[in-house]
Design goal:
Layout: H1 9-12, E1 25-26, E2 29-30, E3 32-33, H2 48-58, H3 65-70, H4 78-82, H5 84-87, H6 100-103, E4 108-109, H7 117-132, H8 138-152
Parallel strand pairs: 3-4
Antiparallel strand pairs: 1-2
Helix pairs in contact: 7-8
Length: 154
């Protein structure tokens, strides 16, 4: 199991690995951390009205269509996420169940800010890299991750 984001799908979609997607849990309930990208109009923009219109389009279901069909990210517009072009895209030849993204919307929460977040993610990526390629056992990989995390979070 790997906890990752949708951006990783493009690296897995052509894999021979039998994989799928499931929402995360926290105790006995699902809990999906909120991650996002933001669009904004600068206060010093010379074209504030045009920029605001562009943002309205980019966040609409139509503006999110390239994201919905590409397999590179989850659309931010809920109508685009629920649309068949996202739920059953042409790239999804393995039949990965994307419904977790619509069903998990009610379980989204804002996780606390952790200053070492990037280092924590890197600990997992580096520590488990050889596990994913069968060059080390799961235990050895997790031991590396544990050692790194302990040094980061002491």
């Amino acid at each position: 199991m790997e906890v990752t984001g949708f951006w990783n799908i493009s690296s897995l979609k052509d894999s021979d690995l039998n994989w799928d997607i499931a929402p995360l849990w926290h105790g006995k309930v699902n809990a999906v951390p909120a991650f996002s990208s933001a669009l904004a109009v600068s206060a010093s923009s010379n074209n504030k009205e045009a920029a605001a219109k562009l943002l309205v389009f980019l966040t609409s279901a139509a503006g999110q269509q390239p994201i919905a069909t590409s397999g590179l990210d989850v659309p931010s517009n809920l109508a685009a996420v629920a649309d068949p072009t996202f739920q059953q895209p042409d790239w999804n030849t393995a039949g990965v169940d994307l419904s977790a993204f619509t069903s998990a919307a009610a379980d989204v929460y804002a996780p606390p800010f952790v200053p070492q977040w990037n280092e924590i993610q890197k600990a997992f990526t580096d520590g488990l890299a050889d596990t994913y390629t069968n060059k080390q056992s799961v235990k050895d990989g997790l031991d590396k991750v544990q050692a790194t995390l302990e040094s980061l979070l002491k």
